[in-house]
Write a structure and sequence with these properties.
Helices cover 64% and strands 2% of the residues. The chain has a two-stranded antiparallel ribbon. Helix 3 runs antiparallel to helix 4 and helix 4 packs antiparallel against helix 5. InterPro entries: DUF716.
Length: 322
């Protein structure tokens, strides 16, 4: 990840998946607000077969390429020197483990969705993606703690966004109908993408490196900490600029997300409903007993996420649940 390409490619994928999840979640919620259930992956609408799981197939195919790039191309290829792992290679192995976690998420979910060999409960995909982001958080947090300069500030801010993604994923495993949490999850994916793009520019493109900082040319390719600031004032200025840039990214991503939600609502003809008080007159002996809906609503999410159950059998099981 310690290269320009190693930041730009993940930035593209995070932003693309965040955009896809944002519009898919917005369409599903505004179309049926009461029946909304968040999904850890978004199927392609109006198609059937393997193309419906395009998002999972993209992850399965591209992540091994990313692991190969991380271990063999992005850095000087010397996985072992005298039987030990060089210090500058440890980060590459850590990033590969993070990529492997995301690959396992895609593989397990695809097996569960396409066959009955591994039926997973509705919450498990969110738990898997939450754990993947948690592993990413530990790796990025460690890199931030090893560098107190420009790079450390960039990765500290990135770790905040990753933490939000992980927390939102676990919350959606608990409450899959919480659209606000799903919206925050999509925003965090978009912000990861834009901020990784900013990190790549600010640390590896000469025209965007803050004044007073420079790249070290005598280090192996792909080593973290290769962008340094010589003077303390330059370091403080660079850290302040990155904090300001991060605030701008957060503002723009939130503004974009809200505008995108409004655009989808307008295209779907969504109208806000009024809130009128309902007066209920009842005697002490005449009352209406309400049944708790929490488990019922959650079970409906479980049935929505089970495409392998067909026709009459699906309706029969759904009727029993209700």
């Amino acid at each position: 990840m310690g290269t320009l390409t190693g930041h730009m490619i993940p930035a593209f994928f995070f932003f693309t998946f965040g955009l896809w999840h944002l519009f898919s979640a917005a369409v599903n919620y505004l179309r049926h607000p009461r029946d909304y259930c968040a999904r850890a992956w978004q199927p392609v609408p109006f198609v059937s077969g393997k193309l419906r799981s395009l998002e999972l197939y993209v992850l399965l195919l591209t992540i091994p390429i990313a692991i190969f790039y991380e271990l063999g191309i992005s850095t000087s290829f010397s996985p072992l020197e005298d039987g030990i792992i060089p210090v500058y290679r440890i980060a590459s192995f850590q990033h590969s483990v993070v990529l492997l976690m995301f690959w396992l998420f895609a593989a397990l979910v695809l097996i569960s969705e396409s066959s009955s060999a591994l039926p997973l409960p509705y919450e498990i995909p969110f738990v898997l993606i939450g754990l993947a982001f948690l592993v990413e958080l530990t790796v990025i947090g460690q890199e931030a703690s090893l560098n107190a300069g420009l790079e450390g500030k960039c990765y500290t801010l990135l770790s905040f966004v990753i933490g939000i993604s992980s927390v939102c994923a676990f919350l959606l495993a608990w409450q899959p109908r919480a659209f606000f949490v799903d919206f925050m999850f999509c925003m965090s994916l978009l912000l990861q993408g834009t901020w990784l793009f900013q990190i790549g520019l600010s640390m590896y493109v000469e025209g965007f490196i803050p004044e007073g900082c420079h790249r070290l040319q005598d280090l192996p390719v792909g080593v973290n900490g290769s962008t340094q600031c010589d003077l303390e004032d330059a370091k403080l200025r660079a850290r302040g600029l990155m904090a300001f840039a991060f605030n701008c990214h957060v503002t723009l991503v939130v503004l974009f997300g809200v505008c995108a939600l409004g655009l989808v609502a307008r295209l779907q003809g969504y109208r806000r409903g009024g809130y009128d008080p309902v007066n209920i007159d009842y005697d002490g002996d005449n009352h209406l007993q309400m049944k708790p809906l929490g488990n019922k609503l959650k079970s409906q999410c479980e049935f929505i996420a089970t495409p392998s159950i067909s026709g009459l059998r699906y309706m029969e099981l759904a009727a029993r649940k209700l």
